[in-house]
Design a protein that fits this description.
Blueprint (H helix, E strand, L loop, with lengths): L2 H10 L1 H9 L16 E5 L7 E7 L2 E12 L10 E7 L15 H15 L10 E3 L3 E13 L4 H15 L1 E8 L4 E11 L6 E8 L5 E3 L3 H6 L2 E8 L2 E6 L8 H27 L9
Parallel strand pairs: 4-6
Antiparallel strand pairs: 1-2, 2-3, 3-6, 5-6, 7-8, 9-10, 9-11, 11-12
């Protein structure tokens, strides 16, 4: 099909255009149905943050910055700290995002991350407690999308885990007699026991066809989606906001695919966090 004719066909009948590729078990960008796009990441690039990362999955790019503060814990949860996530989609990241209050996509992404935090899937929140009923760490996690081209949840989780791995906190000491908290900023340490989560999103099309790591265009044309979050090689969370139902056998296949993707992604995170190369702060 001539390029001009193909472009017109894609513009006028995008669903039919895409279906011609799916019927041949391929995709317009040349990937196989269950092939993920390349992932690249760096950590520690934001000098004003206590932990940071920049992650690019395909064309989707997310910057994560973490700022830490100390505050009293909630009275009903005296031994738990806080992680406060916020996903921001500025108009510059996509022509579909408009100025104004956070849209549905940003709200859904923030809620997804908050759900993982609430269920201690990022880190056991008790690890953030400094002194029971007195003081606890509050981690403000800002996830800013610079370019949106599908699989936003996957990119946000990779960015969050990488930034958490990069995070260092100053040493705190509490004086019981004086009821005083002291901070030594010259001595900083990483958090331990961070869960190594990796999310993998799949789009579901008519005829039961499934593609992994969908682009923005694929997400718009799909009839449903499924996001599988692995903690290393263990299933941690499944998120399916409606759409087509899937058999248990097919879900098991996607879990195995997600496990392989998690293994490769965690290798990238470990390499980035242990790299001896000095990175100049960009902010």
């Amino acid at each position: 099909m001539p390029l001009k004719m193909a472009t017109e066909y894609k513009t006028l009948q995008p669903k039919e255009f895409y279906q011609t590729f799916l019927d041949k078990k391929s995709r317009p960008d040349g990937r196989d149905l269950l092939e993920f796009r390349p992932t690249t990441l760096t950590v520690g690039s934001i000098g004003t943050a206590d932990g940071s990362s920049i992650v690019k999955c395909g064309n989707t790019t997310v910057v994560c910055g973490i700022k830490a503060e100390v505050a009293p814990p909630l009275s009903e949860e005296p031994t738990r700290g806080f992680i406060v996530p916020n996903v921001t989609l500025p108009p510059l990241c996509s022509s579909q995002i408009k100025s104004g209050p956070p849209g549905e996509t940003a709200q859904a992404a923030t809620q997804f991350v908050a759900e993982l935090v609430k269920n201690n899937l990022i880190i056991d929140l008790e690890k953030l407690c400094v002194k029971e009923s007195k003081w606890a760490w509050v981690l403000y996690v800002d996830l800013l999308c610079l370019n949106l081209d599908g699989a936003l949840l996957d990119t946000c989780i990779i960015a969050l885990v990488a930034a958490m791995k990069d995070l260092t906190l100053p040493t705190l000491s509490y004086d019981e007699e004086l009821d005083k908290l002291s901070c030594d900023s010259s001595k900083r340490s990483n958090l331990d026991c961070i869960h190594e989560l990796v999310s993998s999103t799949f789009s579901i099309f008519d005829k039961g066809i499934i593609v992994s790591d969908p682009t923005n265009e694929e997400e718009q044309l799909a009839a449903g989606s499924l996001t599988i979050t692995m903690d290393k090689d263990v299933l941690a969370h499944i998120y399916k906001p409606g759409g087509h139902t899937l058999s248990e056998k097919r879900i098991e296949t996607l879990i195995k695919k997600s496990e392989l993707r998690a293994k490769e992604t965690l290798r990238l995170i470990h390499e980035a966090c242990t790299s001896p190369i000095s990175i100049e702060p960009i902010i």
